[in-house]
Amino acid sequence: MKKRSTYYKLAATLLSTTLLFACTNNDTTTVTSETEAETAGTSTLVNTDVSKLVSEAVSYKEDDSYTDWENEDPTYIELNGTEATFDSSAAVLFDNNVLTIKTGGTYVLSGQMDNGQIVVDAEDKNTVKLILNGVDIQSSTSSAIYVMNAEKTTISLVEGTENTVSDAEQYVYEDSSEDEPNAAIFSKDDLTINGTGTLIVHGNYNNGIASKDKLKITGGTINVHAVDDGIMGRDLVAVKEGTIKIEAGGDGIKSTNDEDTSKGTVALEGGTYDITSGNDAIQSIASLWITDGTYTIKSGEGSPETISNHEERMPGQETSTAATTTATESESYKGLKASVDIAIGGGDFTIDSEDDAVHSNQHVTLAGGEFTISTGDDGVHADSSVATTGGSIDITKSYEGIEGKNITIEDGEIQLISSDDGFNVAGGNDASGMDMPAAATEGSGTIQINGGFISVNAEGDGLDSNGSISMTDGIVIVNGPTQNMNGPLDYDSSFNITGGFIVAVGSSGMSQSHSEDSSQTGVLMTYPEIQSAGTMIHLEDSDGKNIVSFTPAKDYQSVFISSPELTKDASYTLYSGGTSTGEEADGLYTDGNVEGGTKVIDFAISETVTWLNESGVTEAAANGPGGGGTPGSGDQARPDMGNRDDMFSDLDEETRQKMQEIMEQQRNGTITQEEAQEQLAELGVEMPERGTPPTQQ
To answer: What are the CA-CA distances from residue 441 to residues 178, 220, 282, 433, 464 (Å)?
Structure first.
C-alpha cells in the first residue's frame, strides 16, 4: 500500500485545477443532484458514525470491567483433583465432583479439577463473579463451566495466571433429546470475560465459549480451540479489548439470534485477533460493527494459489450463491460476514479467505481501517451497496475486487488485483458475470467516485457497471484486461465525469470512453498494435506542461484519459515510451521530467470526447477491433450478452457436447485457454467476441 503522503501529493498535483473548473461549471449542481437521486440508498452509509452504532448496540456496566475483588468479601474455593475446599458457610454445593454456586457474589477459584464441572445456579438476581486464579478444569461428560441460571456471570482472569478449561469429547445428557450445554464454557444468561490473565479453552465436543444471551469481553488473553465454533453470543458479541486467538472447525466468532431483528449484533471496539476458522471467521446474524483492533484472519482453506477468470469459468460453470446467501447458509468461508450491515471505522485487517473477505447481505461501509486482503472470491461484497469514506484497502488477490448493486467511493485508498472485474455493479446475491440472474444484470445501479485514490489491475473489466458510472473527484488508475472480451471501462447507461483524474488502459476490443454530456473532457487513444507493459504514456499540452505520465503494468492497446487540465480548443501531444524522473505511485508519475519517448500524434480537443488513433482525431467506431462505441453518442452501451441459454443453440448436438467437454477441461485447469481455443477451432467452432453466439464453420 502506498503511503498516504504519496496519495495526497498525487491529488494535489493532478487535481490542482478541479476547484477552478467546479466554480465555473454550471452543470455540476445538476449532475450532483441526479447522482444523489440514483444513489439515495447509500447516503446513510456515507454518513455512518460507527462509534455511535456501537454505543447504541452495547452498554458496558461497572461489573463488566475487572474489579478489585479482594475487597469484595470473596469466597475462596480450592480445587484438588476430585475434591474442593471452601468455607462451610458459603453458598456452594459440592457433590459427585460438581461444584454448584447458588447465589450471587465473588468466588475465587484455584487449583485443578479432574473430570468435574463448575455450575452456576444462582437463586437471586445478583451478579456471580468467578475469579479464575490459576485453574485447570476438565470434564469428561459435559461442559467444564456451565451457567445454568444467573442474572449475569463474569469470569475474571487474574493477572499473571494461566487458566485452562476443557470439556468432554462426548456429552452425557440426562435426556437424549437435549442439546445443551454444548460448549466448554456455556451460559444461558449474560456472560462477561475480563481481567489481564490467560484463559485457554478446549471445546472438544462442539463450541468453545457460548452464551445464549449477551457475551462481552473487556480484557484478558483468550485462546480457544474448538471443534465447531469458537466464541458465540446469541443476542450480542461485544469485545472492548483483549488478545484473542481462535482455532475453530466452524465459525470463529458469531452471533445467532435469528428471531429478534433488534438483536444479534457483533460489536468489536478493540483487541488483537488471530482467527483460523473452517468456515466464517467473524459472522453476525445481524450487523457487524468494528471501530478498532488488529485482525489476522484465515477462513476456510484461505485463498487459492490461482483464481480462474471469467472466461476460464465459462458459461454455466460459475458458482452463484443467489439461492444460498442467507443467514443459515450451511457452508460459508468468508472473512467478515453479516446478514444485515457491516460498518468499519478503524482497525488493521489481514484477511486470507477462501470466499469473500468482507461480505454483507445488505450494506458495507468502510469509513477507516487498513485492509490487506487475499481471497478466492470477492474482496468486498454487498448484496446492496458498498461505500468507502476513508482508510486503505489493498486487495492482492481476488476474483472480483469490490462488488455491489451500488458502489460509492468518497475517500480512501484502494488498490486491487482481480482475475475478473475490478469494480462490479451488477446486483444480485453474490452472483457475477454470465451466470448472473437476468433480473440482476439489467442494472440501474451505479459506481459513484467522489474522491480517494483507486488503482485497479483487472483481468476482466476494470470498472464494470450494468447501470452507470459517475465521477466528481479523486484519482483512478485502471490497468485493464489484455483480452478483447473485456474492457478497462464497461457500462450500460452512462459515465458522467465532472471532476477528478482517470487513466484507464487495456485491450481495445471493448474500450469505452466517458459520456459526451460530461462537463470534463477526455481522450480515448487506440493504437494499431499492442503496446508492451512498461511503455510510458506521456501527454502534454502545447506549452510542454505535463498532463499525465503513466507506465502501464500490462500490455495495452487503448488508453482513456480524463483530467481537469484537458480543455476544449487546446492542443496536445501524445508520446510513447521514455522515462520520468518524478515520483511514482502505481505507474503514475508526479513532478519530474520525462526523458526520451516518441511522439505519436498532435491533436486538438474540440469535443467532450476526443477519439484518437495513429492518424489523429477519428470517429468513435474506428477506435479498434470490435469498435468502441456509437459515433457521436459517447454513451457507448456494451454489447448485449443475450440469453446465455441460447448461446449454443446454433450448434449441432455432437459439436455442442464436445465443446462443453473442452470447456470443462479448461475450467479444471487440464488445458489452457489457448489449447481450448485450438481444440474448438479443430471442431470448426469459432468463439465469438462478447455479445454474439459461437458459430460452427
So the answer is: 47, 48, 30, 8, 11
Q: Which residues have C-beta within 8 Å of that of residue 56, sequence separation ≥ 6?
A: none
Give the pLDDT band (50/70/90) at residue 320. very low
For residues 686 and 479, what is the distance between their CA atoms, to the nearest angstrom?
A: 28
Burial of 568 (0-12, 13-18, 19+ CB in 10 A): exposed
Asked if residue 631 has a cis previous peptide bond (ω within 30° of 0), the answer is no
* In the block, residue with C-alpha cell 476490443: 509
Give the sign of the dihedral formed by CA 205, CA 206, CA 212, CA 218.
positive
Residue 181: is the preceding peptide bond cis (ω within 30°)? yes
| pLDDT confidence band for 671 (50 / 70 / 90) | confident
pLDDT tens, position by position, 279-292: 999 999 999 999 99
**Neighbouring residues of 394: CB distance < 8 A, sequence distance ≥ 6:** 1, 371, 372, 373, 415, 416
As a whole number of angstroms, the distance between CA 422 and CA 401 comes to 5
What one-character DSSP code corresponds to residue 351? E
- Residue 395 Cα distances to 173, 342, 503, angstroms: 47, 18, 20
Q: Supply 416's cell numbers.
A: 486491487
CA distance 396 to 418: 8
Question: Which three three-digit cell numbers place residue 609?
Answer: 470526447
The pTM for the full model equals 0.85
DSSP state of 175: S
408 or 673, which is more confident?
408
| HSE, side-chain direction, 13 A CA sphere, residue 669 | 5
| Partners of 502 in beta bridges | 476, 562
Q: How far apart are CA 404 and CA 356, in angstroms?
A: 12
Q: Is the per-residue pLDDT at 635 higher than 60?
A: no
Whether residue 504 is predicted with pLDDT greater than 90 in this model: the reply is yes
